Amino acid sequence: MTDTIPASRPIRRRIRALSDRSIAWLFVAPTIFLLLAVNIFPLIWTIRLSFTDFRANRPNREVEWVGLENYRRILTDPDIWNTMQVTAHFLVWTIALQVLIGFTLAWLINRKFRGNDLWTTLIVLPMMLSPAVVGNFWTFFYQPQIGLFNYVVSFFSGVDPSSFTMIGSVTLAPWAIIIVDTWMWSPFVMLICLAGLRSIPDYIYEAAEIDRASKWRQFWTITVPMVLPFLMLAVLFRGIENFKMFDLVVQLTGGGPGSTTELASINLKREAFEKWRTGYSSAFAVILFVTVFGLASIYVKALNKVKDR
Amino acid sequence: MKRLLLTTAATLSVSAAFTLSAQAESLTLCWAAWDPANALVELSKDFEAASGHTMNFEFVPWPNFADRMLNELNSGGKLCDLMIGDSQWIGGAAESGHYVKLNDFFDANAITMDAFVPATVTGYSEWPKNTPNYWSLPAFGDVVGWTYRKDWFERPEIAAEFKEKYGRDLVAPATFAELRDIAEFFQGREIDGKTVYGASIYTERGSEGITMGAMDVLYSFGFKYENPEKPYEMEGFVNSPGAVAGLEFYKSLYDCCTLPGSSNAYMGEGIDAYKSGQVALQMNFAFTWPGFEVDPNVGGGKTGYLVNPAGPDGERFAQLGGQGISVVAYSEKQDAALEYIKWFAQPDVQAKWWSMGGFSCLRAVVEDPSFASSQPYAQTFLDSMAIVKDFWAEPAYATLLQDTQKRFHDYVVAGTGTAQEALDGLVADWTVTFEDEGKL
């Protein structure tokens, strides 16, 4: 006991002697270490693997350095370009629909009416569910014989419910996944837009009223420009999320029929953990990372410009 | 009485031998989560009683089975002491050192592979194929076959209508062409006020479904994996005119005669479709058959069992399923795991295994005169096991399988391209893989 007291004094003194900068580093260091361990190191490792023919299921096999061969194969593989097209189709349509529906819902919810809070809660429910669960129960909705979706379409159009299959048809399956993602994530866009709408001070509209600006003009010259940064943020979040979309679509269609809904992430998973072409899939992952990172950087610059306006 | 005494004596001697074993261990057996696994849990209680070891089980549903277990093996995991792994894993597991080679153990314990059905030894135990290098004991024989609604076939009004339309009796089909006629006949038909469909076939994309289903048909149309004279030469064998016709047939069956929404169907979906009375014919592995016999809707004589029909030239083959039981090389309880295999190989244990719904591969069981009449499907199982072929069991099987899944699903379900293009593409994919493997 008596030994420890004198020993602790110099430590305290030393801590007191630390500069603010050193203390700041002391606090940040664990986070930086964690980031390096779980993000940076795997990234560097993946880049290294992308130049080899390593297969994770064959640890005893000799690993060969193949240079840029994996990248060449990927960039000349029509199947990869097909998955990129499928991903782009999914991305463009989900974002367009979610922006449209999300903004409309936000605009409607922003108006004061009875039961406003209840409606808001009900609308945001889908985004609180697990994507795997959503995918699973929508497969039942889309079931041609017992599915609710087919019966609703049948009710309005008069076609036989079992005459079409949403997730088994080459034409309809890409729209089936877009519908579900839109149903699930439009509320997210709505929430962000709602924050934007509520941030617009009332006096701006009052001034516009005094200037006798029409509601239409107020919408285009006040509402839209002021909500735009929020909307762009929502597009960024949804864009990144949907570029790496996996769970929902795997549950719904498994990438089928054929490769009709095989998004880039599903293809990547197949290459990495079903075919076990680890080197090849690492190269594909690097390409996808560079694509997302590059596009997101350009987009963030555009977003900052809009905010500064 | 004599048999009873012998069995009792054998059980006692084995019990005594196990009781003397060094120490009681807690073993974990890994397998797929399905009905036979439940039967094995029950059966293994006898081993626990006899040996003093405790058995634990890790069962994973089929769609995730390969992912989960191959990850376990590849990472050198110690979770599983015993593994009932899929037949296609044998090459990779042997070459990567995941399984313990069992030759010495078999020799020391007088376990001979001649005692097992030859196709199961080749399919589940040998690597390289057709060499006496054994990595597992055949544990569960399985094969793709067909079930059909015998009660519907026997209805006079249906039988008469069929005869009028096709000029022959409505009986179990002998050829694939006849099978399609029957499926077409039932497609969209009203039976007992309900719309029914022709057939349930494998179309699953994610794991191995459509490959198992299409190959089951293609073999009888002349498909071969390689030139029998020159290994890995695939041109003209994988994409032979017969193979192309076989794939076209499979697509025509999918297009004309399956129930709506079956674009991603495998074993479970087939069972559901058949038990719920939606289809007249069903392609599925034999392991599903005991379940049909006890089902209130389709059991009790309502179901007929059918060996794969013949192709256009009379050739008849079937897709092998099933698994062997292996000792995992990373297990620290290998002696106890080997004890389990020794116990499992005994004829009386194998006989009990069959009686509980496990498809034994032991010849003493399946060649017993009473076997064929022991269950309504027993003879069909035996006949099917005599004509089996299996997918590649190469270390690169996973890549070969996924390439096949894509080519077949793209053509059969999505209708992309032609059968010739699909099989030409498959030759190209497989060639790249074998080149990467240094085998071409």
Automatic annotation (TrEMBL), chain A:
It is a multi-pass membrane protein. It holds the Pfam family BPD_transp_1. The chain crosses the membrane at residues 23-45, 90-109, 121-141, 172-197, 218-240, 280-300. One of its GO terms (cellular component) is plasma membrane. InterPro entries: MetI-like, MetI-like_sf, Sugar_ABC_transporter. Residues 84-299 form the ABC transmembrane type-1 domain. GO terms for biological process: transmembrane transport. Keywords: Membrane, Transmembrane, Transmembrane helix, Transport. It is found in: Cell membrane. SUPFAM superfamilies: MalF N-terminal region-like (SSF160964), MetI-like (SSF161098). It comes from the Bacteria. Belongs to the binding-protein-dependent transport system permease family. PANTHER family: GLUCOSE IMPORT SYSTEM PERMEASE PROTEIN GLCT, TREHALOSE TRANSPORT SYSTEM PERMEASE PROTEIN SUGA. This is Sugar ABC transporter permease. It comes from Fertoeibacter niger.
TrEMBL record, chain B:
Keywords: Signal, Transport. SUPFAM superfamilies: Periplasmic binding protein-like II. It is found in: Periplasm. One of its GO terms (cellular component) is periplasmic space. Pfam families: SBP_bac_1 (PF01547). Its main location: periplasm. Transmembrane segments: none annotated. InterPro entries: Bact_solute-bd_prot1, SBP. Residues 1-24 form the signal peptide. Belongs to the bacterial solute-binding protein 1 family. This is Carbohydrate ABC transporter substrate-binding protein. It comes from Fertoeibacter niger.
